[in-house]
């Protein structure tokens, strides 16, 4: 549209100049026509900009309607409520694929006793996060069986199942609202005293009280006015408040500095105490004391055992461990997530 407007101005100025030389028009008349041309081109530019806005809005509306049209999650007709659990998790010969014919997990079996820490390690794309996604029933398995305290999770109401699961991810999502409301999202009926107690256990109370409004400080979308470590501490406080029996920690300390990592790991130790925990990590120093370490590669568990047993096998884990600990030999040893 700018090209059309500029072309119109050039034509008016050119024709006007020829007529002015011949004495058929005055310079003032030429200026008037140029002004008319500009006024005529402005609505055309507005229409073009409006068209671009409409196209952007339509693209956004398509994504919104995709979510609205997504079918509601429905429990099985014989789904039962889930009462208080101990936290025993069993994967029995589980296979899964996002796309038919391309399996992501192949015949995975594991047994996590109540209160145990299960570490999942392996290359990117090996299937570690898929395992916890199946435990939370974000996807349904193709074959096999997943049980919690002996109950098939497909026969448990999803809402009750997810109430027993606490998740702390690498990228924590915080909402626009107060610090208190973001922590309370873990259990909406919690009292202010319970929120404060959870923040203290998560090592978050100190930095929260330094904020301009303490617990009433309003956070921006995704917690943009907090550091990565502070967002992680709030996520831990949220999980403590929810008081789940099963924890999922997915690379929760991978994007913070060493000092903040120590505070986060101390908070996680409190959070994990007495709970069945699944820890996904690339840094082996954080999971050396785990009860079970499962090495996953290409959708299969290729090694399992504790740190000492796996090092003795001199396999994939032993090579990975040697490389990592040699690279960090000159640094201060990080605090383990497991004691």
From TrEMBL:
CDD domains: ABCC_Glucan_exporter_like
Cross-referenced Pfam families: ABC_tran
Membrane topology recorded in Swiss-Prot or TrEMBL: Multi-pass membrane protein
InterPro entries linked to this entry: AAA+_ATPase (IPR003593), ABC1_TM_dom (IPR011527), ABC1_TM_sf (IPR036640), ABC_transporter-like_ATP-bd (IPR003439), ABC_transporter-like_CS (IPR017871), P-loop_NTPase (IPR027417), Type_1_exporter (IPR039421)
GO biological process terms, semicolon-separated: oligopeptide export from mitochondrion
Any one cellular-component term (Gene Ontology): plasma membrane
Major subcellular site: membrane
Cellular compartments annotated: Cell membrane
SMART domains (alphabetical): AAA
SUPFAM superfamilies: ABC transporter transmembrane region, P-loop containing nucleoside triphosphate hydrolases
UniProt protein name: Uncharacterized protein
């Amino acid at each position: 549209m700018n090209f059309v407007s500029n072309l119109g101005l050039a034509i008016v100025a050119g024709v006007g100049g020829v007529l002015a030389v011949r004495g058929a028009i005055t310079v003032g008349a030429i200026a008037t026509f140029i002004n008319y041309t500009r006024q005529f081109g402005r609505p055309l530019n507005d229409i073009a900009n409006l068209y671009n806005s409409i196209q952007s809005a339509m693209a956004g509306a398509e994504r919104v309607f995709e979510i609205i049209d997504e079918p509601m999650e429905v429990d099985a007709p014989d789904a039962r409520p889930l009462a208080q659990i101990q936290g025993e998790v069993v994967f029995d010969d589980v296979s899964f694929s996002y796309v038919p014919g391309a399996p992501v997990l192949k015949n995975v079996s594991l047994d996590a006793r109540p209160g145990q820490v299960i570490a999942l390690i392996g290359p990117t794309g090996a299937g570690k996060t898929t395992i916890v996604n199946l435990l939370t029933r974000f996807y349904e398995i193709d074959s096999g069986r997943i049980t919690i305290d002996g109950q098939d999770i497909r026969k448990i109401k999803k809402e009750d199942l997810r109430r027993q699961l606490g998740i702390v991810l690498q990228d924590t999502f915080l909402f626009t609202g107060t610090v208190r409301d973001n922590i309370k999202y873990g259990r909406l009926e919690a009292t202010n005293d319970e929120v404060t107690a959870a923040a203290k256990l998560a090592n978050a109370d100190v930095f929260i009280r330094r904020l301009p409004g303490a617990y009433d400080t309003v956070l921006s979308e995704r917690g943009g006015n907090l550091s990565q470590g502070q967002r992680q501490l709030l996520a831990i406080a949220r999980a403590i408040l929810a008081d789940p029996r099963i924890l999922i920690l997915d690379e929760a300390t991978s994007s913070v500095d060493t000092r903040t990592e120590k505070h986060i790991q101390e908070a996680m130790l409190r959070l994990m105490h007495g709970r069945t925990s699944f820890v996904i990590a690339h840094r082996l120093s954080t999971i050396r004391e785990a009860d079970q370490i499962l090495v996953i590669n290409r959708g299969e568990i290729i090694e399992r055992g504790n740190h000492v047993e796996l090092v003795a096998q001199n396999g994939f884990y032993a090579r990975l461990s040697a490389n990592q600990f040699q690279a960090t030999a000159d640094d201060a040893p990080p605090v383990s997530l497991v004691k």
